[in-house]
Structures are given as C-alpha cells and as structure tokens.
Design goal:
Length: 274
C-alpha cells in the first residue's frame, strides 16, 4: 500500500514547523500519511508542483515566498483564496489542482475559539499592509467589527487595501503616527515583517490599553519584539501566532483528509519545543 504524500513548499523552508504539526495530527487521528519539507526556488516552483502532482502527491502547503505565484498554476480557486490574493493549500484530485487559503480562518479560530475574543463590534487595528494583512482583512470584516483600521509605514499601501475591502465592511487607513485613538482597541494585530529586518517600527503606544489583546502573526520560542513592546505598554495580553499556525494547518488537514484534528494538545506541544 502506498502512503498518501503531502508537503510544504517554501524558500527557505528549513524552519517550518508544518511537518511536525501534520505528523502529530496524523498520529492523533490514526491516519497514515507522509509530509515532506520541500525547498523550492521561485524559478523552479511550477516544475516542482507539476512533478509532485505527476508522482501522485495529494496535497501541498505553500509558504513564503510562493503564496501569490502559485495562483496562476491552480485550476480551481476558492473564494477565500481569491479574496486573500494568496494560496497556502493545494489539493490534487483527478489531475486538477485546487487552491485554497486557510490562514484567515486559522487566525479567526485562534482569536475566537482559543482566546475567547469577541470580534463583533470590536475596534481592531492592524499594523502593516502587506500580503499577510491582505489575507486576514476579509475574514476579520466578516466578524462584523465596529471598525478595522490598517496602519502602515507607507500610507498608500494601506489606502489600496481599504479600496479593495471597502465593500466588505468598515475599514480605514492611517499612518503609524496618526492612528485614531478616540475608542480603545480590543485587538491590535502586528502583520509587519519588520522582525525579519531586526527592526522595531514606531508602534502606536496610544492604541494600547488594559483592554487590548495584542496579537503578533509572527511566532518564536522567545517573546517577539512586538509582544515585548505590548507587555511593556500595558496590554491586557500579548500573544504570538502559534495558534494561527496550528489552526491553519488543521484546516488544511481537514481539506485533505476530511477529519478535523484536536488542535489544543498540538498547540501546547509545538509552542514549547524547538
Ligand atoms: P508580508 O507578506 O509578510 O506581509 P510584505 O508584503 O513585504 O510582507 O509586507 C511587509 C509589511 O511590513 C509592510 O506593511 C511593510 O511596510 P511598507 O508597506 O511601508 O513597506 C511592513 N514593514 C516591513 N519592515 C518594516 C519596518 N521596519 N517598519 C515598519 N513597517 C515595516
């Protein structure tokens, strides 16, 4: 009997926790599958995906920097992937490629189910206006917040996202030094990639109060600079994106295997082991 094959394609990809997460899901649900780390340079992406498909692969996670490039290779695109402008999950069935995006639902599950946040009527601030932000604005607006403000170093990029999502709900744009603070924020999400350059942007202090949950889409075994900053500025709590990572993986697993794993024990294990 051949074992169903899955994997994650990225560049670099060595740091990915996805193989461990999917192995734990498979153990927990009694499924037999193989999950590989696939380091693929951008110019080799199409060839690598086609080869994976040809050799009987069942599904792939797609990570940085390929989430947009993979768009043109899929035969069927889910609505949420189309809205996000990015694909993180491929399924191979009947010689066709299905593209989906589980990042947004992964974030929502972590915020609502794991952290118990009430998003309906909430004031939300997102820091950053890149690809990560684009993937989460649609799902967050579906939760009917009172307002969702996107703050970015380059105002034009935040304005562009507002234009794109204006029909989805109450969304506005600002620069870091002009964040509106008339109402306290229940949730501030860091979606900048500043951490990769080792920099800490001028995060807006006035946006943080003792009612604010600060959530960093980045995760690390040590508190990220944003989490440290949030703690120092009196946020109610400051959380790294381990939960989103595990929840988006669970959604991919569900798409592929039709079974939803219990994320709690996996989240506990993954966020404390390197
Ligand atoms: P991703 O797909 O991770 O979102 P991206 O599309 O390159 O990556 O977007 C990176 C985001 O982090 C942008 O919002 C970027 O701000 P600009 O649009 O002004 O470039 C933000 N960012 C990166 N480094 C930053 C820094 N040092 N200070 C503030 N914002 C930064």
């Amino acid at each position: 009997m051949t074992v169903d094959r899955y994997g994650v394609m990225g560049y670099p990809v060595a740091h990915s926790r996805s193989p461990v997460i999917h192995r734990l899901f498979a153990q927990q649900t009694g499924q037999e599958l193989q999950y590989e780390l696939l380091r693929v340079a951008p110019e080799k992406l199409e060839e690598a995906i086609r080869q994976f498909q040809r050799t009987g692969g069942k599904g792939l996670n797609i990570t940085v920097p390929h989430k947009r490039a993979v768009f043109r290779l899929v035969d069927h695109l889910s609505e949420r992937a189309s809205t996000a402008g990015a694909v993180n999950t491929l399924s191979f069935r009947d010689n066709e490629i299905y593209g989906d995006n589980t990042d947004g639902i992964g974030l929502l599950r972590d915020l609502v189910v794991n952290l118990g946040l009430q998003l309906e009527g909430a004031n939300i601030l997102i820091l950053g206006a890149g690809g990560a932000t684009r993937g989460i604005v649609g799902p967050l607006l579906e939760m009917q917040p009172r307002n969702l403000c996107i703050a970015n170093r380059t105002l034009q990029r935040a304005d562009d996202l507002v234009e794109r999502f204006a029909s989805h709900g109450p969304v506005s744009a600002c620069s870091f030094d002009a964040v509106p603070v008339a109402e306290p924020y229940g949730l501030v999400i860091n979606a900048t990639s500043a951490i990769h350059g080792g920099e800490v942007p001028p995060y807006p202090e006035a946006a943080i109060s003792s009612q604010t949950t600060c959530y960093d889409l980045s995760y690390s075994l040590h508190p990220t600079p944003f989490v440290q900053w949030a703690q120092e500025h009196g946020a109610a709590r400051a959380v790294m994106g381990w939960g989103m990572l595990v929840e988006q993986a669970a959604e991919s697993f569900h798409i592929w295997r039709g079974v939803r794993p219990d994320t709690k024990p996996v989240l506990k294990q993954i966020s404390i082991t390197a």
